[in-house]
Amino acid sequence: MDVSPFVFKPGDFFRDRLPPADLYVLCQIVHDWPDDKVHEILSRVAQSCKPGAGLLLVETLLDEEKREARVALLQSLNMLVQMGGRERSPGEYQCLLEQHGFCQVQVAHLGGILDAILATRVGP
Questions:
Q1: CA distances from 94 to 42, 58, 90 (A)
Q2: Stated pTM of the model
Q3: Is-contact 48 101, C-beta < 8 A?
Q4: What are φ and ψ of residue 58, in 5° steps?
Q5: Residue limits of the O-methyltransferase C-terminal domain (predicted)?
Q6: How many angstroms separate the CA atoms of 114 and 58, rounded?
Q7: pLDDT of amino acid 86
Q8: Hey, which residues does 58 pair with through a beta bridge?
């Protein structure tokens, strides 16, 4: 008997309707896409988010000056060449998220190659 409160739903976030949720988790998704697709993804998540729901992004973060995070810089170049995407700084993620109605953006450096960005959806 599964008593887990979590339900995972497969799908294509460019075509399928996103199910309502209290928390959306995008792990190493946003960096794959060029800006227009990132805005499309975040817009679709925002439309499905109720006020107070969260969005957790797990990505490799660049430093704000884009000089020190060498692994992230190499990864960003790789994403640009292969997919048209890129790594971003915490400030760039905050700007993206705020454009789609997310606030209270918090960044947690996890001590490895990945970091976490948590934001809350405000009103409609």
A1: 12, 13, 6
A2: 0.81
A3: no
A4: -120, 110
A5: 7-102
A6: 6
A7: 81
A8: 27, 116
Paired with 62 in beta bridges are none
pLDDT in tens, 42-85: 999 999 988 899 999 999 888 776 656 566 555 555 555 556 67
Selected catalytic residue, list 31, 39, 100, 109: 31
The identity of residue 56, as a single letter, is: L
Residue in the block written with tokens 């971003």: 88
Instruction: Give residues with Cβ within 8 angstroms of 10, minimum separation 6.
Output: none
In the chain, where the domains are located: 30-121
C-alpha torsion angle, residues 25, 27, 33, 37 (rounded to 10)? 0
Query: What is the C-alpha separation between 23 and 18, in angstroms, rounded?
Result: 12
User: Taking Cα atoms as reference points, which of 121, 114, 123, 20 lies closest to residue 58?
Assistant: 114
- Asked if 62 contacts 69 with a C-beta cutoff of 8 angstroms, the reply is yes
From residue 111, alpha-carbon distances to 10, 23, 84, 115, 117 in Å are 29, 23, 27, 8, 14
CATH 3.40.140.20 describes domain 30-121:
no
Cα 18 to Cα 92: distance, rounded to the nearest angstrom: 24
